[in-house]
Amino acid sequence: MRTRTLGAGGPQVAPLALGCAGMSDHTGPADEADAVATIHAALDAGVTLIDTADFYGMGHNEDLIGRALRGGARDRALLSVKFGGLRDPDGAFVGIEGRPAHVKNALAYSLRRLGTDHVDIYRPSRLDPATPIEDTVGAIAEMVEAGYVRHIGLSEVSAETIRRAHAVHPICDVQIEYSLLSRGPETNGILDTCRELGIGVTAYGVLAHGLLTGTYRQPADGDPRANWLPRFHPDNLATNLALVDRLRPLADAHGIGVAQLAAAWVIARSGERGTVVAVLGARRPHRVEEALAAADVTLTGADLAAIDRAVPAGAVAGTRYAAPLMALLDSES
User: Fold this and answer.
1) 204 is catalytic
2) Cα separation of 281 and 169, whole Å?
3) pLDDT reading at 274 higher than 90
4) Euclidean distance between CA atoms 15 and 3, whole angstroms
5) How far apart, in whole angstroms, are the C-alpha atoms of residue 331 and residue 247?
6) Which of 19, 83, 257, 276 would staple 106 via disulfide (CB 3.0–4.6 Å)?
7) How far is Cα 51 from Cα 287, in angstroms, rounded to an integer?
8) Can you state the angle between helices 32-44 and 60-68, rounded to 10 degrees?
C-alpha cells in the first residue's frame, strides 16, 4: 500500500487508519476475539495508524488494543491517542480537561493500559475553554522531550487554534470530521491552514455515522442517533438519503459500494489540500477488507466533479450534532 507522510516530519502512514471506538463504545463492546483479529488484519494489510481515546469505554479500548499488540505487534503500529473527554459512571460526557497536570496524568494511565513506553501521536480530544491551548500543547511537548510521545496532534479545533498550537510545538495532524456530507473544513480555513503549515489531516466520520454506508434506510427501534445527530432526524433523513442514492450510479461505475466511494473521495483530498488520511471504524476483520477497496480506487477529475454534482457542498440537511454538542466544537466557532 502506498504511504504518505502525515505532516512535515511526521510518520509514514497508509491512506487509511483504523478507528477503534466502535470496539468499546456506542453499541457496546465488540467480541474481543473479533476486535483483536480486526487490528491484526489492519496491520497485516499495511494499515498502521490505530486511533483510540482514553475515554472510549472508559479505558476498555486502550486495554483491548494493548492486548492485541502483545507479542511484537506493537512495533508495526502507530498509536494515535486522544485524551480530555470526561465521563461519569453512567458513561455521560461531563466536560473537557486540558490542564497540564491532567495531560501528564492521563498519558501515564494510557501508557499502562496500552502496554507501551510511548504514544506515537497524542492529542486533546477537544479544546478545553478554561485552559489556553498553549498550556496544553506545552505539557505534551514536555512529554515529547521526555520520550513518552513522538508527535503532537489536535482534534476539532479552529484555524486560529491550530496556529497558536503550532507556534508552541510542531503539530503532526489535526483530526476533524470530514466527509461528503461534512464539508466545513474546506470553507472554515482548517484545510488551508493545515496545508500552509505542513500539518496532516486525519478525517473521521468519513461515512457520516452510517448515512454514507449505502445500506442505512431508516432508524431501527431504539437507535439514538436521531437524538444527537440532526441529520438522522425524520425532518432531515429523507433529504440526506436522497443524496446518498445519487452516489449509487457513480459507485457502480467503479464496481464498488457507496461506502467505498465515500472513503475514496476523502482519500482523494490529499494532494492540493495537503495530506489527508481517512479514519474508518471496524469491529470485524471483513470490514477491514471492505475498507481497503477504497484505497485501491483512483478517482479522476471527472469522477470528482460528478461526485460534487451529485452531492454539492452544503446540500446536507441538518447540523453535524445537536446544539449542546456543537457548542463544544472550537472547529465550528
Assistant:
1) no
2) 29
3) no
4) 6
5) 28
6) 83
7) 16
8) 60
